[in-house]
Amino acid sequence: MGAIYWLSSYPKSGNTWFRAFLQNLQQDGDAPVDINELHTGSIASGRSWLDEVLGFDTADLRHDDIDALRPAVYEWSLQSPDLEYHKIHDAYTFLPSGEPLVSSKATRGAVYFVRNPLDLASSFANHLQCSVDKAIERMASPDMSFVKSERKLNNQVRQKLLSWSDHVLSWVDAPGLNLEILRYEDMLGDSLATFTRAARFLELPHDRPRVEKALHFSRFDRLQEQEKTDGFKEKPANTPSFFRQGKAGGWRNELNEEQIARIIADHGPVMRRFNYLDQSGVPQ
Amino acid sequence: MNYFYNCYNLAIDSEMPLSEMVALPDRPTAIDVRIAQGAVDPDGLDGAEQVGPFLWVSPTALQLHIPDVARFLVSNGNTILYDPAPGIDEDSVRVFMLGSALGALLFQRGYLVLHGNAVQIGDGCIICVGHSGAGKSTLAAAFMQRGYNLLADDVVPIGNDCHAIPGFPRIKLWQDAADKLEIDTTSLSRIRPDMEKFNLPITEKFVPKPLPVKHIYILRSDDEKGFSSTPIKGLQKFPALHANTYRQKFLDSMDLRSDHLKLCGKLAGQTAITRILRPRQGFEIDQLVDHILADLSESV
Lengths: 284, 300
Description:
The complex is a heterodimer. Chain A has a single domain, classed as Rossmann fold (3-Layer(aba) Sandwich), CATH 3.40.50.300. Chain A has 12 helices and 6 strands. Chain A has helices at residues 15-27, 47-54, 63-75, 117-128, 132-140, 164-172, 184-189, 191-201, 208-217, 220-230, 251-254, 257-273; strands at residues 4-9, 84-88, 107-114, 145-146, 159-160, 179-183. In chain A, the strands form 2 sheets. Chain A has a 4-stranded parallel sheet with strand order 2-1-3-6, sandwiched between helices. In chain B, 24% of the residues lie in helices and 35% in strands. The radius of gyration of chain B is 19 Å and the shape is globular. The chains are: A alpha/beta, B alpha+beta.
């Protein structure tokens, strides 16, 4: 059995909020953890993690060659007796060898965070510092990747996201994957039950007082407040703020009719599967 | 036919041409390092501890596999054996030879090896360190364009006398960095086929002699709008140096940890260390050079 639990999501779907909860849960301290000290485990695409385990520079390798080595890096985690929790934005893809990028051997399971793409659009536009229309276009692109330039170096390696729908399906339908799905809307609307379910799945303490305290310490307004005072080092450059609204249903005020129709046209089947559309196709 | 070079103050006898290094006209009387092609066991190094999926280390040897490129066996601080993968080009083998393999050899020779570059300032040098992607090579090229000379890029060994040892006269530069610095890459060789990353020769701007380390700068990007400097003081200097050591993993089971820590302590005692925060985007590399030079003149 693997040693890694992936905290997996398309960007802006509650992953970082969950990591703040996770670290508060693990530390069980008397004060909230500093959002700039979230050490829940490197992101799967972190170049430093890969270089350290490999013993050579991924900066001297092409993107596809790096991907081919990533399973071996994750499998190296099996050397340590501890469970690890790593954030990942890559879609669940397979290498030419047929092996999953994340390595079935290394993987113990995954929590997949899914969020209504109608709400995601504005948040993703803020994240990428582009227009909402552009964000919607990227969410529909089957070639969407982070760090895909061949001309410069980034402290992360390339991540293939695929379209939003394909990202969701790649993880939730991944063959043989031990999976727990968390809807962002349930994390907000039914926090205690949803976070408790995740903590239990991740083999972490999940007694009520402890989960409640961790939830209290990672409340969205607290994260926002910390970001306002001290900044947030994981925030993309030029973005006004990382922790933006933390709400569900904001799309009703943020999107125009055309944008709503476009997202539904692009992602209808997956939206229906996660109850973001009702049976007659009306957004919820 | 063998080739002879001087690099990191070592006389090198190599079966493979290493065009980035300073070539010697004749075979030197004493050879410090031999680089030869030979069989390197695909199953790893006998009697050594495996410390990574492709890495084995013993007190006297280190074996590293770069899948589909080459296997390297670095021994006793004086030998590098390389075993190229079938069909691989020589440039690709050389990239890893000049990086990890030579870096391992420098550890075996007892140097403190930092991940950064060394720029001559007056009768000494500064070293700029940082993680992969922090912009170290771009900064080195920018210093060079401003008329400064370089001792090394990427791997900087420090000797017992706290002097930085010169490496070889070239910088590895990405196309994007070359564009920013207005360096035309059409006549430059790629570090590997199909990569938009180039060998920039710096022969005219290379210092071939060791220089005392005056100041170490740790490069960090941050979300702030401007630049800032924070001196690292006292006991904090030690972990800062350790964290910016080249391939910390190579130290594992090499029996070198205690020497390494001693040298870290010595360097920390003699050298100022400053953390430089720069904006993550939207800054001119010249501004970073100015900021470091200004900080340096204030700290003298």
